[in-house]
Amino acid sequence: DATGRLDELTSGLHGYLKIEADKVALAFDRDDPEQAAFVHDAARFCQVFDAQSGRLVFQSDAIRPLGLHFTAPEVRTLREEGRPRDFSTPFGRIRLSNSPIAPPGGGVYLLQTGVSLDPIERTLARFRDLLLLGVPAGLLAAALAGWWMARIGLAPLNRLAAAARAIDARDLGQRLPVRGADDELDEVSAEFNAALGRLERAVGEMRQFSTALAHELRTPLTALRGEIEMALLGAGEDEAGSRRLSSQLEEVDKLKQLIDRLLTLARAETGDIPLAVGPVDLVPLCASLVDQLDLVAGVRDVTLECAAEGRVVVLGDAQWLERLLLNLVDNALKFTPAGGRVHVRVRREGGEAVLEVTDTGIGIAADVIPRVFERFFRAAPAREADPKGTGLGLSLVKWIVDSHHGRIGVRSEPGRGTTFTVSLPAADAEAGHTPPSPPDPSFAR
Known about the structure:
Layout: H1 2-14, E1 17-20, E2 23-26, H2 33-42, E3 46-50, E4 56-59, H3 72-81, E5 85-89, E6 92-101, E7 109-116, H4 118-165, H5 184-235, H6 239-269, E8 278-281, H7 282-299, E9 303-308, E10 313-316, H8 318-334, E11 341-349, E12 352-359, H9 380-385, H10 393-403, E13 407-413, E14 417-425, E15 442-444
Parallel strand pairs: 9-11
Antiparallel strand pairs: 1-2, 3-4, 3-7, 5-6, 6-7, 8-10, 9-15, 11-12, 12-14, 13-14
């Protein structure tokens, strides 16, 4: 504290300062090292003024170069204030005390004792630099240490989360690791594993029920269909009865188709349907499908065309990929009015095989597009255009795309048409061993 040190020097110097007839002397025991050192420090920056005239009567060697001269009014003001003041000099800043002295010989004087502020300011500057550099560095170090400790602390939780994400309906036999630390994470793992066990048993029971249900339902449906067909043969010329029986036969077929699709989806989503993965060229697949559906398109008076570019090979199950394309094109034909057009395009974009099915049909409202892949979901226009539909075709399409690590998107405008875009990871074209493409890769039906 500069002010405290200055007060100590000033009060001590008063006891050693002798003034007689404007002559200033320092009276102390020069044989006492401690006393001599104190007087030397106290008188280093020292000067004495006549308080009445303002005349300088004493000035130490160290303070003389600083140029601290004052006029008579300034001397009187400093004596009256009696408090320390700071001054800037060519050699740095200094703090001077201002204390009046009235020696026994008469007169009134102003004693100024000073201490240099440079050491204090250098210390403050170093401290300021330390704050400017050290605090950010300390905060950064603390942040890095916190991040590192948090990462170490969260590592078991991250491993647990990764193991949980790896579990799906296709392999419910997996379990989360239990470290044996007997902590909260082990407790969570144990509870989660118990829940997985219950879920695995429930799914197993559901699979058994689905299989039994298929056999139990298919048998009476087959028998019912046979009896209806026999009744149709015996209906003879009864047109009304024949129409009713034909309608019942259609309903039985629709119910059988619904059961078959539900069972297929259930088996697919639980991993009971293995994929026969191999190289598949989508170009001849597209051509073959257009040939198959050519008659259907002609009956509906819809133009069906396919455009393919070169060889577009993917690794997948040829039968399921054909089912994917068949469902999309069949949907497009159902919802495209007479005189419309369905266009199938196969191409390669970078590392992906892209399959597009575009129609000029009734379209899909924007608010229902996110739901088109849900089971049994059918928008009102779709129910009106195809009353016999089950609402399961696009659900199966979505499963096929996901099983081939692809993605599917929908763009549509009501009254203008719809485009389904399927993107699958492309394979090396040289890997394909499917039948060759037709001579003209772009043809219309």
